Structures are given as C-alpha cells and as structure tokens.
Amino acid sequence: MDAALGFPVLVGLIAVALLFDFLNGLHDAANSIATIVSTRVLRPQYAVFWAAFFNFVAFLVFGLNVAQTIGTGIIEPSIIDVTVIFAALVGAIVWNLITWALGIPSSSSHALIGGLVGAGMAKAGLSAAVWSGLTKTLLAIVLSPLIGFLLALALVAIVSWASVRSTPFAVDRAFRILQFISASLYSLGHGGNDAQKTMGIIAVLLFSQGKLGAEFHVPFWVVIACQMAMALGTLMGGWRIVRTMGLRITKLTPMQGFCAETGGAATLFLATFLGVPVSTTHTITGAIVGVGAARRVSAVRWNVASSIVYAWVITIPAAAGVAAMAYWLVILLR
C-alpha cells in the first residue's frame, strides 16, 4: 500500500469517485425513466425528478452488502492503494463518457468493476482478483437480464389474463397510475445497487489509508454523499440513451412499461439484498425485451438489442484496458 496520503490528495480522490457516481446517475438515468417516458406517462423533465428522489432515499431501504462486495470482494484489499483507485476510476469514467456520447446503454457498474480489475491486475497480476466475488459478478451479467426478461414476460401474461374483460381504455388508464409505483420501485432498486458501488470504492480507499480502523466498513457520510451524487446525476438526465432504451428496442404501452419496470425492480431488489453488484442497464433491457417478446418476437428490434449486448461484452475488458494503461502511466510518471 502507499504511504498515508496527504489530506488534499485524499479529498481529491474522493471527489473523483463522487464524479464517477454523478456520471453513473447521468448515464443510468435512462434506465430509471425510459419506460415511463416512452409510454408518455411523464415528461422527461418530471421523470428525472421522480427518479432522482427515489435514487437518493434508497439507503433507507437497503443494507450495504453491495458496497461490501465492491470494497473487499473484487480485488484483494491488501493491494489497494491510491494509484489502483485512481486508475480504476479513470477507466470507468472514460468508458462511461464514450458510451454516453455514443448513446450506448452500457453498464456503469461493469465499467467500474472492469476498472478495478484492470488496475489491480496491472499492479499484482492475476493474484489481485478475488475470484469468488468476481465470478459471482460475471455470472450476474448473464443472469440479471435473463431474470428481468422472464419476470417481465410472466407479468405480461398474468396482467393480460387478469385484464381480459376490461376495455383497452380502462387498462391503459389503470396502468398509467400503476407505472408511478413501478417506476418508483425501479429507481429505488437502481439507487440501492448502483450508489453502493462508489461507497465501496471510497470506503476501501479510506481503509487502505488507515482511516477506518482495523475493520472495513462504510461511514454514514460516505453513504449520504454517494446517494446525493447519484441523485444529482439522475437529475441531469440522459436523453440519448432514453431513446434507445424506451423507444428503439420496442414500442411500449403503459401496461408493458409497468411489467418491465416491476420485473426489473424485483431483480434489482433481490441482487442488492444478496450483495451482488448487477447492472441496472442489463436488467431493464432484459425486462423491456421480455415485454416486447410477450407480444410477438418480431416486436423486438433485435438488431438494436444485439448491439447493446455487444456493448455489454466489451465493457469490462475495455474499462480494464483503460485502467491498466492509466496505472502504468502514473507509475511511469512517478
């Protein structure tokens, strides 16, 4: 580990981590509001306020299991130092900005994990990885969209059967109201899972500098700062990705939007309670594809969905590559 950092350097690194959290909210705002905007239940400017509020209050609902996984379950805490954290954040932020500029709904979560892995392995090789936690996270890449897909598919079937005797107008009106609930739950799940990733980064940085004592934990001020940074990022929106998520994959009705959000929220709640850092982008995309496929397979624009999958596949290695280069550059310039 590095020698103890000066206070200004430590504050600067925490600020960079909070910048990543802000960009995470900006990048992933679309995940929270895509369906409620695309079904025209809420205008984008109102939807982001709605999502930001529930992003912020998520710490009142969930424990800190995901933060624990990020802090101690991806890279061995013993090899964490200032350079590893800085390089990991550079890798995640650069990849987030690239995908945001291109309107690609890639995963901020996996960009951060890729950054951690790339920086850690640049320092200590393969021995840097905590393979149990990393394997669990990689497995979630496949399982989270699949679970979102299946839950949304099942919900569409159940709701369609329950509404068979209702008029289309009555169904539409009912689900416009219910979408406020489902969007709230999804934003709550998003804030609970994603903000904890930055909490884990800041906490392990403090731990590596001896600021937390002998035992790893997440201070309350870190919890509040991360939830606030994410909420502010969400307020900035992300309209480019909203178009892809809510409009280009498949056209959604309020009933389908409710099913997608509820399926995605259930997946996020489960993962957060289990301490698995899943991708909210993967989850909601799987759920949206599920409701589209429930109508008919051709309702899904599979070329758009497949391009999103390609972005998922390359996110971890791309962010890891940028982080490794950042690590080696810092070492070279010392």
From TrEMBL:
GO terms for molecular function: phosphate transmembrane transporter activity. One of its GO terms (cellular component) is membrane. It is a multi-pass membrane protein. The chain crosses the membrane at residues 7-27, 47-67, 79-98, 110-131, 138-162, 220-242, 263-289, 309-333. It is found in: Membrane. It holds the Pfam family PHO4. Keywords: Membrane, Transmembrane, Transmembrane helix, Transport. One of its GO terms (biological process) is phosphate ion transmembrane transport. This is Inorganic phosphate transporter, PiT family. The lineage of its organism: Bacteria, Pseudomonadati, Pseudomonadota, Alphaproteobacteria, Hyphomicrobiales.
